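B., you asked whether I could sanity-check this one before it goes into the benchmark set. Here's the sequence:
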Amino acid sequence: MKLSYFNFWLRNTVIYLVFCLLGLIVVLVDGTHVIHEKGHFSHVIINGGVMFAIAHIQVYIHNRFLYERYFSKQNWKYFFGIVSLFASYFLINYFTPFTFVSNRDVITMSISILLIYLIGLGFYYMHKNITDRNRRFLTGILEKDDEIRHLKAQLNPHFLFNALNNLYATALTDPNQTPDKILELSDLLRYQIESSKKERVPLQEEIDFIKKYLSYEQSRSPKLTISFAAKIATNQLLLSPVLFMPFIENAIKYSSGTKQPRISLTISSDNQKLCFKIWNNYDPERGEFSGTNTGISNTKQRLALMYAHKHELIITDSDDIHTVELNILL
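And here's what the prediction gave me:
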């Protein structure tokens, strides 16, 4: 078992043992407590351990399943959940030997369970602050690595060599189009370099860049068939820059190995979810479609850090079609 704060079982076991120790100290200090009577020590220890375990479980249910999911979102579910927890607390206190308070007065019991939940909520926010800080730290490191990767990719001599060849061919066959192609390449390079320095970019800017990139690739390979559709509910959406590009680059790369390369791409969003879907054909005889390169692996890590528990990535192969579907909750 990895010794880390972020190990769920280790963290909760330590917290549980700390409270058990505090409880033991309290009863030992009390000279009149039954624990000091002969033969009662083990009984008190077992009962106290079970009692703290029950309290720990109740706090976990409140924080993880009620407060985190329903508070301020679906308050009626949170209310009924709290009522159920309170009811279980009273039942345990009245009908089992694992009593939280010796005084079974309703007001005293209500105050005691309320204090337990408030203390647990305090630990929850402390934990949330620690995990958020850690996630931002890891995201910063990963995005720095990603920035370097993108900068290197944009300065790749092979990429520039192909771009200059395309410009040269255009200058010979259709000189009037050369200025537009130069501007198109310049825009691609500028956006990728500048966006790599930002944590978030508007979704509309990302879509505009993808359109330019697809147009550029279309000019490089006239036989490539591209279908692209975008429908977004608002222009206020932000996301990590060039997040979709590894999937698009892979689709074009593997589709180009077929006689009739084609890709289809859709991006849609409402106020709650962003959906990205791309499929391409590929030649099965050249081996299975590979999605394990650095770009894809890096993107998966970025998704895990920046959209933890808020994204779904589905990659499937069927006959000669490779499909990638990414859904992100906003």
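One thing to flag: The first helix runs from residue 8 to 29. Otherwise nothing jumped out at me.
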